[in-house]
Amino acid sequence: QVQLVESGGGAVQAGGSLRLSCAASGYDTGRYCMAWFRQAPGKEREGVVTIDTDGSTSYAESVKGRFTASKDYAENTLYLQMNSLSPEDTAMYYCAADGIGGSWSSYSHWGPGTQVTVSS
């Protein structure tokens, strides 16, 4: 059974940093395309970054240069390092696996999410 569990969210001030983790179990993270999505209250879910099976990444324009995604294959864990956070980054962040690019509806597996709140 595939299971994804996010952690690392919290409340920070603008300009701060957070590192999110997504621990995967029940499958090999190298086997599927994975992604981080986020959803702010009243807004649609949006893709933050996708990580393909070869490790290549694709970032949303709004986070380029500030966020960095990585995989630890030994730990079967996905990470999202978020720097220079702004209030606009406030959202619930979700880890997803087995999908296509930034199309959230194509992903088969989701974690419960972790909340990120950035104050000005």
What does this structure look like?
- The protein has 120 residues and is an all-beta fold.
- It contains no helices and eleven strands.
- Strand 4 and strand 5 form a beta hairpin.
- The chain is globular, with a radius of gyration of 13 Å.
- The relative contact order is 0.32.
List the helices and strands and how they pair.
Layout: E1 3-7, E2 10-13, E3 18-25, E4 34-39, E5 46-51, E6 57-59, E7 67-72, E8 77-82, E9 91-97, E10 109-110, E11 114-119
Parallel strand pairs: 2-11
Antiparallel strand pairs: 1-3, 3-8, 4-5, 4-9, 5-6, 7-8, 9-10, 9-11
Largest sheet: 7 strands, mixed
Q: What is the percentage of strand-forming residues?
A: over 45%
Counting copies of identical and different chains, the oligomeric state is: single chain
What is the helix/strand order?
EEEEEEEEEEE
What is this entry, summarized?
The chain has strands spanning 3-7, 10-13, 18-25, 34-39, 46-51, 57-59, 67-72, 77-82, 91-97, 109-110, 114-119.
List the main descriptive attributes of the protein structure presented here.
11 strands, globular, seven-stranded mixed β-sheet, mainly beta, 120 residues, four-stranded antiparallel β-sheet, 49% strand
